[in-house]
Amino acid sequence: MTTIKPPALKKGDLIGLISPASSPDDLSRIEKSVKYFENLGYNVIVGKNVGKFRGYLAGTDEERLEDLHYMFSDKKVKAIFCLRGGYGAIRLLDKINYRLIKANPKIFVGYSEITSLQLAIFAKTGLITFAGPMPAVDFINEISSFTEEFFWNLVTTKKKLGKIKYPSEPQPLFLRKGIVVGQILGGNLAVLTAMTGTKYFPNMRNKILLLEDINETPYKVDRLLNQLRLNNILSMINGIILGRFVDCYEDDANKKTLTLGEVIDDYIRPLKIPSIYVFPHGHIKDFVTIPWGLKIKLDAGKTSVEFLEPAVS
Fold first, then answer.
1. Which of 30, 198, 211, 256 has the fewest beta carbons under 10 Å from its own?
2. 19 is catalytic
């Protein structure tokens, strides 16, 4: 499938805000998000169903889907930002009009639970989407200058960003040296693993896989990585980048456990492919936005990641 790049964003463009998973608990975050983009010189439209609640969902499946489809169908909207993650986007995968998305490529941003939408969109359309900061989570707080600058450079510049300059400590480390070039795909480990075996999971052959997660104890990470192994996904990939695994430890000192590092060693080292960990991506303050589907170069020995092409057209 041919990769599609969305048009670059320009000042004055219209940005759409949606909640395809969970809703912000504090609805004032929506208004703050609008002001953030307006202060940067963009116009903003908020999905008509944003702010609704149905348990842990931001409204019914039909309501959340309606906002997603509307933003892709409105020619004036040039970028779509998911307000937050949470849960529920994965429920929409078999209801989405992927032909609509393919015919109207535009910047689509989110991470965590939004992984499900991004992988499905790539599998069905080839559109590059962005695992980047979300308005009601990242932009309204004291967003780090690194995260902010990296993101806006990526979506507004028709130049390749080249080698990534990492923020402050900790710096990435390598598990196995080697150099590999390929498209980067991945996202939240728990969400990604829940999609395996479905027609919405992209072909991972020869890809570079990036994984991150939060609040998963080592035995749960073990189970998730093992599911990827049993689905032959780990044997398909040519390289692996492990982002941040935040609060992924056993907090009961009396419980017998492997460490997260031991679990990762058990699954990643035997692959004998270029691999690094502690890469700055995930549920952290200083993080690198990743364009899913972009061609990159991983030099694991130098813990270097290089974007080989622009992410927007």
1. 256
2. no
| Fold held by 162-307 | Glucose Oxidase; domain 1 (3.50.30)
Structure tokens at 164: 């990534």
Q: Which of 212, 216, 275, 281 is catalytic?
A: 212
Two tokens at 295? 């061609």
Active site residue 283: yes
How far apart CA 111 and CA 86 sit, in angstroms, is 10
29-59 residue pLDDT tens: 999 999 999 999 999 999 999 999 999 999 9
Kindly list the domain boundaries of the chain, sorted by start residue: 14-143, 162-307
Spatial separation of the C-alpha atoms in residues 200 and 179, rounded to whole Å: 29
Which pairs from 249-256 meet CB under 8 Å and 24+ separation?
249/217, 249/218, 250/217, 250/218, 250/219
* Cβ atoms 30, 16 nearer than 8 A: no
Mention every residue, 6+ apart, whose C-beta is less than 8 A from residue 260.
218, 221, 245, 248, 249
Residue-level pLDDT at 251: 84
DSSP secondary structure string for all residues of 104-163: S--EEE--GGGHHHHHHHHHHH-B-EEE---IIIIISS---HHHHHHHHHHHH-SS--EE
Amino acid identity of residue 17, one-letter, is L
pLDDT level of residue 301 (50, 70, 90 thresholds): very high
Q: Exactly one of 33, 112, 116, 275 is catalytic; name it.
A: 112
pLDDT digits (tens, 9 = 90+) for 157-167: 999 999 999 98
